[in-house]
Write a sequence for this structure.
């Protein structure tokens, strides 16, 4: 177990280093001069002297390797520098914005599991009846309709037609918690539908796979009730792939929340990233990617470790 | 627009231009056709009012707007801006549609505004910063322009008017401007305003190391001084007709000298003399402005609070308005204009202050031949582009740069560019160019207001036989290529940073950083005409000069002139007092002191 942990830790660190380096290189290879964005973007018509002055101020006139080592050194100290555009500290902006993204992603995952798993169990249990195809096709719909379509439909129905919930915007939960909940509802629901459908399908197929195994027949033949068989034995054994898929979904949720944050004007870390890419704000892009990638890698790491903990066979891979 | 609208408004405008019949007739027809008032308003604002001289007979008792270009050397502004009555009852051009409108959309005429209320304002993008001397884009004029005052400003008809300067005088030779500042004005943090403050702001802008927005323009001022607390004297080495218009831009807001010198960061704090004060903000979430109780225009502003929320997503912004989350929104996508306009709960104010053109790199064959560039202009069916790319909401650029409604609009050039593929072919033949053997690189940004236009243009050039290599770029990549001249043809959308045609110097004069410098375009004739226009102070003569400029420009055809793009703000029906000021377009948002909420 110890050797396995060390191996996984080292590979995680190498992975993070590669991500950070690739992001740096990609950004600097990408056409588009941040100095022009700073000077007004698409409305800009600066003189070459203005551009040179801004490049110097931003340190972009230095050789690339100097910028790279500077960047690495700062990242180790968790200092992502200051935004080219507004001069604010990237680290503190991420610290403000990451929790806001988490405020919709984490509840969305919870909702997805709380609704998706029972639906999957029901579908598996009533496989022979009309319940399974019904639940399965709803899930298919939830899985295949893009998140922004769902989001816009929800806004149209609940905000514009019914007027029950605000169309978009964010309020700090410390300022006004009920209002925060109202505003978070639609983003959470839109974000949860995809993972919910996936969780349901995964639960269903994993359960069905287990249901065909010998131990189930044994359990049934020794007289255990169907419910006990299902929950105490089948579900437990079916859980591993479900946990994997939920953990992976967490990463996918970051991608999904780019659109959700945009549609619901939710000032999270992804909206921040999106704006920054559009103006080539290197420190912001690098900082956000480094942090989000670390979270993703960390979750995978923890998932792997937990498998090793639960299933001894994995340790000896 | 309603379906039963059988005549397109832009055609109506064309017709009216040809036959200066009257705007009232237009209004009657438009209303009969079922166009709702704000649309008519937008159109009239676009075509009316400032059509200068020809139009005066029609505009009743309004103060003449013939000088809307704003070069009247003598001070005429003292009354129009110093008055206590903010309602523009005398204004004809700007708010005529509202005065006549049946559903009273946007009605400002007549009565007093009601004090109190909150405006929840949906911005296209984040404010980025607050510096009164940096250009953050038109979107931030709602912040900068309402917290900071400028020395010169505009009245609601688009004429230059006194701002912090109550009156001004220009010497006969156009070389000395004497501005007399208002007294009793205080900054939000309590400092008293004087001419010294203006000097300090000019110092800051003109300091090269600060890299601020209007330095190039303002460096036309040879020297300046506060001759006493109240008087500012600007001395020029040669006449510069655009000076007052430059002083009226949002990027020349006046901050307190004492405050600037105290080491504050003006990008993160604000201290102006404007109608609203910055109360609190959270970047990219909310900017809250509150009423300045000591504003120098007594009785103004009406609103207690303005909350500005950046909502970059087009759908989200419109949805926030439709759901009542906000009651004012800028940059209404054209797809939503008709829907909002038809809904009696909302009002739409539309204008055509932006335009789409295709930049041609005059140093890359075959575009180095002006016959080829002219041919491309004849190859474009502008009506078709407008129909496809903007659902019919646009005006064709058939006459050059200045749209109907601009004080610089030249009626006699109307119809210069027509859709005439045969003429295009014969020009190409004359130039010795066979389009079937030519591939043109066409660089286009990945934003739909550009790419939709570009795709139709591409199709039309292909019909002529050209092969088009369509190159998609995101905005920063495009901006870099534009600055370095790395393109053959480039789709772009432009607007004037301030409503004076001298602004075209940054495009077409030799070394102009917005166009000419990038591709190394050096045209001495255009440069010379622009220089003449800049140093001429008589508005009538200037108008002649810019007619000459447009003629020469169209002969040269450095761009494909495509269309004037619709741009609109929308608001709840209860929001009153907004005027789209002719020439300013979206920058009319800098005048929120006139807005009020009708209960």
């Amino acid at each position: 177990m110890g050797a396995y942990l060390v191996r996984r830790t080292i590979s995680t660190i190498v992975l993070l280093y590669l991500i950070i380096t690739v992001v740096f290189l990609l950004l600097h290879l990408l056409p588009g001069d941040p100095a022009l964005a700073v000077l007004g973007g698409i409305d800009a018509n600066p003189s070459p002297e203005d551009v040179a002055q801004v490049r110097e101020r931003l340190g972009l006139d230095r050789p690339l390797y100097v910028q790279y080592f500077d960047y690495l050194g700062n990242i180790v100290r968790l200092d992502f520098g200051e935004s080219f555009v507004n001069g604010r500290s990237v680290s503190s902006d991420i610290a403000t914005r990451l929790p806001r993204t988490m405020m919709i992603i984490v509840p969305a995952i919870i909702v997805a599991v709380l609704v998706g798993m029972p639906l999957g169990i029901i579908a598996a249990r009533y496989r022979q009846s009309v319940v399974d195809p019904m639940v399965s096709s709803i899930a298919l719909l939830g899985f295949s309709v893009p998140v922004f379509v769902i989001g816009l439909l929800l806004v149209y129905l609940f905000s514009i037609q019914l007027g029950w919930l605000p169309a978009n915007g964010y309020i700090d939960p410390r300022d006004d918690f009920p209002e925060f909940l109202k505003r978070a509802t639609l983003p959470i629901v839109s974000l949860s539908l995809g993972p919910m459908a996936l969780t349901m399908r995964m639960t269903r197929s994993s359960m069905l796979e287990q249901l065909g195994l010998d131990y189930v027949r044994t359990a049934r033949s020794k007289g255990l009730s169907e419910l006990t068989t299902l929950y105490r034995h089948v579900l437990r054994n079916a859980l591993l792939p479900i946990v994997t898929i939920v953990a992976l979904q967490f990463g996918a949720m970051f991608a999904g929340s780019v659109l959700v944050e945009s549609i619901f004007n939710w000032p999270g870390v992804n909206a921040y990233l999106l704006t920054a890419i559009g103006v080539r704000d290197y420190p912001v892009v690098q900082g956000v990617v480094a942090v989000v990638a670390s979270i993703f890698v960390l979750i995978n790491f923890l998932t792997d470790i937990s498998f090793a903990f639960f299933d001894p066979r994995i340790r000896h891979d | 627009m309603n379906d039963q609208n059988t005549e397109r408004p832009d055609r109506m405008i064309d017709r009216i231009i040809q036959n200066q019949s009257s705007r009232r007739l237009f209004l009657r027809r438009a209303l009969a056709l079922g166009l709702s008032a704000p649309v008519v308003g937008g159109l009239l604002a676009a075509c009316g009012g400032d059509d200068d001289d020809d139009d005066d007979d029609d505009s009743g008792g309004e103060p003449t707007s013939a000088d809307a270009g704003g070069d009247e050397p003598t001070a005429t502004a003292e009354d129009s801006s110093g008055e206590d009555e903010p309602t523009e009852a005398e204004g004809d051009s700007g708010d005529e549609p509202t005065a006549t409108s049946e559903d009273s959309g946007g009605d400002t005429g007549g009565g007093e505004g009601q004090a109190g209320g909150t405006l929840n304002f949906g911005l296209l993008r984040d404010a980025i910063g607050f510096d009164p001397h940096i250009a953050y884009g038109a979107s931030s004029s709602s912040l900068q322009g309402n917290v900071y005052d400028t020395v010169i400003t505009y009245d609601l008809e688009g004429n230059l008017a006194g701002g912090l300067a109550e009156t001004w005088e220009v010497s006969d030779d156009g070389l000395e401007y004497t501005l007399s500042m208002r007294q009793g004005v205080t900054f939000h943090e309590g400092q008293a305003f004087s001419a010294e403050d203006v000097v300090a702001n000019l110092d800051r802008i003109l300091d090269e190391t600060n890299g601020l927005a209007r330095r190039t323009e303002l460096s036309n001022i040879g020297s300046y001084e506060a001759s006493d607390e109240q008087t500012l004297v600007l001395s020029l080495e040669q006449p510069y007709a655009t000076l007052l218009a430059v002083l009226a831009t949002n990027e020349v807001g006046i901050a307190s000298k004492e405050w600037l010198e105290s080491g504050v960061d003006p990008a993160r704090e604000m201290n102006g003399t404007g109608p609203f004060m910055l109360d609190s903000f959270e970047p990219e979430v909310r900017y809250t402005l509150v009423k300045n109780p000591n504003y120098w225009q007594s009785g103004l502003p009406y609103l207690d609070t303005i909350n500005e929320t950046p909502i970059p997503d087009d759908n989200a912004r419109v949805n926030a308005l439709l759901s009542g989350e906000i009651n004012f929104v800028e940059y209404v996508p054209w797809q939503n204009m008709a829907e909002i306009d038809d809904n009696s709960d909302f009002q739409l104010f539309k204008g055509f202050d932006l335009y789409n053109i295709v930049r041609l790199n005059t140093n890359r064959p075959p575009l180095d031949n002006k016959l080829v560039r002219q041919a491309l202009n004849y190859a474009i069916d502008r009506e078709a582009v407008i129909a496809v790319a903007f659902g019919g909401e646009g005006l064709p650029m058939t006459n050059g740069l200045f749209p109907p409604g601009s004080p610089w609009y030249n009626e006699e050039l109307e119809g210069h560019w027509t859709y005439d593929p045969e003429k295009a072919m014969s020009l190409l033949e004359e130039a010795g160019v066979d389009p079937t053997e030519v591939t043109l690189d066409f660089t286009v940004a990945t934003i739909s207001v550009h790419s939709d236009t570009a795709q139709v243009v591409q199709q039309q050039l292909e019909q002529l036989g050209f092969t088009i290599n369509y190159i998609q770029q995101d905005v920063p990549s495009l901006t870099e290529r534009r600055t370095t001249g790395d393109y053959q043809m480039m789709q772009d959308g432009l607007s004037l940073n301030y409503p004076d045609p001298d602004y075209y110097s940054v495009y077409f004069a030799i070394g102009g950083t917005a166009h000419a410098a990038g591709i190394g375009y050096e045209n001495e004739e255009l440069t010379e005409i622009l220089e003449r226009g800049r140093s001429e102070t008589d508005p009538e003569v200037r108008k002649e000069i810019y007619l000459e400029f447009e003629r020469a420009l169209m002969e040269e055809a450095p761009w494909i002139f495509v269309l004037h793009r619709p741009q609109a703000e929308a608001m709840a029906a209860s929001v009153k007092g907004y005027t789209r000021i002719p020439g300013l377009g979206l920058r009319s948002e800098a005048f929120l002191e006139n807005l009020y909420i009708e209960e």
